[in-house]
Amino acid sequence: MTTISRPAERSQLYLTKITTRDLNVWYGEKQALFSVNLDIERNRVTSLIGPSGCGKSTYLRCLNRMNDVIEGCRVEGKIALDGDDVHGEDVDPVQLRARVGMVFQKPNPFPKSVWENVAYGPRIHGLATGRAELDEIVTTSLERAGLFAEVKDRLDDPGTGLSGGQQQRLCIARAIAVQPDVILMDEPCSALDPIATARIEELMEELRARYTIVIVTHSMQQAARVSQRTAFFHLGAVVEEGETGKLFTDPREERTRDYITGRFG
Amino acid sequence: MLPLTLALLLLSTAAFVLGRRRAFAVVEGETRLLHSQPGSYGQWVALWCALPSLAVVVAWWLLEPALIEWQTFAGAPAEVVELPPERRELFARDALALSAGEVTSSEPGPALRAAAGRIQRVEGLGQLSVGGLAAAVALMGLGWARGRIRPQLRARNHVEAVARTALAASSLVAILATVGIVLSLVFEAARFFALVPLGDFLFGLEWSPQTAIRADQVGSSGAFGAAPVFAGTLLITALAMAVAVPVGLLAAIFLSDYATPLTRAWVKPLLEILAGIPTVVYGFFAALSVGPLVRQLGERLGWEVSSESALAAGLVMGVMIIPFVSSLSDDVINAVPRSLREGSLGLGATKSETIRRVVLPAALPGIVGAVLLAISRAIGETMIVVMAAGLAANLSANPFEAVTTVTVQIVTLLVGDQEFDSAKTLAAFALGLALFLVTLGLNVVALVVVRRYREQYD
Ligand SMILES: Nc1ncnc2c1ncn2[C@@H]1O[C@H](COP(=O)(O)OP(=O)(O)OP(=O)(O)O)[C@@H](O)[C@H]1O
Ligand SMILES: [Mg+2]
Predict the structure, then answer these.
(1) d(CA A225, CA B246)
(2) Is B349 helix (H, G, I), strand (E, B) or coil?
(3) Is A163 part of a structural domain of the chain?
């Protein structure tokens, strides 16, 4: 019994959430990703680092098929979420995006009230049957995003009137409200001050108990602080990936070492 | 006048060159010692050359009529000087005509000939001496300014001050023109309201200004109740907007969110061509094609339809306004940031949900602004209505009946020869003023709405 249960426990803890095999992406004639292989593990934070233009955002946007809406973008290769191909014929990208939420670089609250912003996703997916249930979802989502205490008296004020850091947490709450499995964050702190950044980093640590998180960041310190796994992208390919601690202290590749010590990029 | 203008142009060009050269000479080629670029010194000298002599010419223009008037009667025989005012004026006009070699109203007598001779002398003197004076002033200005060029002289600032004044003067012209038009509307309308009470005009239900043609009827028996006219405008505008708003808005959504770039590159200009068709063309399209069609349709349904109907005019006007709505709405829908669309799609919303729940609400103020502008365009439109909706001032909400609008009535009131101060003609100004106030209100609201929308995304 014990000999069987231990690997099972282990796979429960570190089961691969997303597998990527031989992923190639083109924007028109120009190839942006070259044969990417990468596994994202459940309930951990994975950070994607690398110099500008190396394809981090492109990879992230493949995971919830946001590249579908870009004119002239072509994706080849296999991405599996919980073992199911996201490009499968029976997969609706709209439903996929409800499972794989996204937080963008620039906070982009809708020009609606704070409450409406968070209720938006649950409403379109019919996650609540009445106003009371929706209120419940809005409150818990805001609480999990660590914003509720700050906005509980201004739920009817426009979301665009919050501060930058509050807006970004509102966007996180908005994503959480849909009850996704995975949250993708593309440089979520690049428009924020250090205090707001620290607040969101704390939040990621709390959120990973429930969700799988992938974050793109330009800050090595941030990657080292918040993530358990790190992948280093360069020129559209994954150069190296592994445990964050290992990758930052003892990288296998010369290029990784050069990048994290700031010798190029 | 032409030789003088040419001479002034030549002189100021020369002034520019001389001033520039002088600026170089003053610092012996070390232009960085100059406060301004050498060209600015050139411009400064050219301005000193041109502006004062222009002032001389303008002063002469203003002065000449008075001089001629004075000379016409100076030394004229007493019987001419003591003529009654109208005859005096006729004499002056004849003298001027004779001096220019044109036809006079009667056989010119000796007094008239003498006056014409005096006028010729004034004009000849003017041409010679003013030409000479202007040239002299130009040369003096040139010489004086050239001599004053120093490295410390702030030539650029002076030139810019002149340019600024010229720009301000131009915008003043536009403002003054508007104010003038509004004032004339207000004063003429006030005269109308002295004849017809304001309440009768606004709330009267009968409009038949034609009965007030005879002088003994002025203001007493003509019916100036404008309600049917405004009702007609309202009906036709409503019909036009019922066509233009849905079609234009859907076209805008298609263009901004569904069309491929290639389709968009073709469809948008094609739509905008609609806006370039002269309204008179729409007018005969409405009168000759759509009007009969509407009547046939009505007859088949067993309704009484006049051959001129509000429906025909409204439909065609709606088509004409589609590009206004679609083009402006397309702009505001496009201005909704891509990040908002992605935010919604990223939450698992479909494209149509995204458009309905995020894009359109965000663009709504701008769309409202576009619609308000389109409405004021519809209210002001005349040609289509003249040709397709008729002239009968019926107070009716039935789109199959002939109606008339404010603009059409203004046209019919002013076409034909009435005394200018009859109530009939003055009524046109009252209608015009009312129309102006309505469209002004709409435009102000539209501008405020659009501005609020702009602030949201800056
Ligand atoms: N919509 C697009 N159309 C065409 N090319 C694109 C598009 N988006 C990205 N690219 C190209 O794909 C490559 C990868 O871009 P990507 O945005 O993934 O880089 P990134 O690693 O996120 O960079 P950054 O750190 O600056 O955000 C770049 O060369 C970029 O020019
Ligand atoms: Mg990026």
Answers:
(1) 54
(2) coil
(3) yes
- Those residues whose beta carbon sits under 5 angstroms from the ion ligand 2 are A 57
Per-chain mean pLDDT for chain A:
89
Q: Do A124 and B362 touch (CB under 8 A)?
A: no
B118-177 per-position pLDDT tens digit = 888 888 888 888 888 888 999 999 999 999 999 888 999 999 999 999 999 999 999 999
* Cβ within 8 Å, pair B346-A102: yes
Q: Residues B118, B71: contact at Cβ < 8 Å?
A: yes
What is the model's pLDDT at position B219?
Answer: 46
Ligand 1 atom at shortest distance from the alpha carbon of A58 = 18
Ligand 1 site-directed mutation target among A25, A49, A54, A69, most atoms within 8 Å of CB: A54
Listed by start position, the domains of chain B span: 2-153, 223-457
Q: What is the pTM (predicted TM-score) of this model? A: 0.74
The CA-CA-CA angle for residues B302, B304, B310, to 5°, reads 120
- Residue A262 Ramachandran class (φ > 0 left, ψ -120 to 50 alpha, else beta): left
A219: left (phi over 0), alpha (psi -120 to 50) or beta: beta
Q: What is the residue-wise DSSP string for A188-237?
A: TTTTS-HHHHHHHHHHHHHHTTTSEEEEE-S-HHHHHHH-SEEEEEETTE
Pair of tokens at residue B224 = 């100036």
A213 belongs to a structural domain: yes
Please give the full DSSP string across B164-189, using - where no structure is assigned.
HHHHHHHHHHHHHHHHHHHHHHHHHH
Q: How far is the CA of A48 from the centre of ligand 2 (A)?
A: 10
List for chain B the helix, strand, coil content (%; round to 5): 80, 0, 20
pLDDT of residue A44: 93
The answer to whether domain B223-457 has CATH 3.40.190.10 is no
Say yes or no for a CB contact (<8 Å) between B456 and A175: no
Whether A112 has its CB under 8 Å from any CB of chain B: the answer is yes
Position B89 scores a pLDDT of: 83
Q: Is residue A134 part of a domain?
A: yes
Q: Beta strand pairing status for A229-234 and A45-49?
A: parallel
Q: Is A88 in the pocket of ligand 1 (CB under 6 A)?
A: no
Question: Which helix (H) or strand (E) segment is A24 a member of?
Answer: strand A16-27
The total number of structural domains in chain A stands at 1
- The enclosing domain of A123 has a CATH number of 3.40.50.300
pLDDT of residue B218: 47
Distance CA A170, CA A164 (A): 10
A54 pocket-lining for ligand 1 (C-beta < 6 Å): yes
At B63-119, the pLDDT tens digits run 888 888 888 888 778 787 888 888 888 888 888 888 888 877 777 888 888 888 888
For A107-144, the DSSP string reads: ----SSBHHHHHHHHHHHTT--SSHHHHHHHHHHHHHH
The one-letter code for the residue type at B456 is Q
Question: What's the DSSP call for residue A250?
Answer: S
By C-alpha distance, the chain A residue nearest B359 is A110
Residue B140: count other Cβ atoms within 10 Å of its Cβ: 14
CA of A138 to the centre of ligand 1 (A): 34
Within a domain: A2:
no
Q: Which ligand is nearest to the CA of A49?
A: 1
Q: A224 lies in which domain range? A: 7-260
The interface predicted TM-score of the complex, written ipTM, equals 0.87
Facing residue for A69 by CB, picked from B337, B343, B345? B345
In angstroms, the separation between the Cα of residue A103 and the nearest Cα of chain B is 8
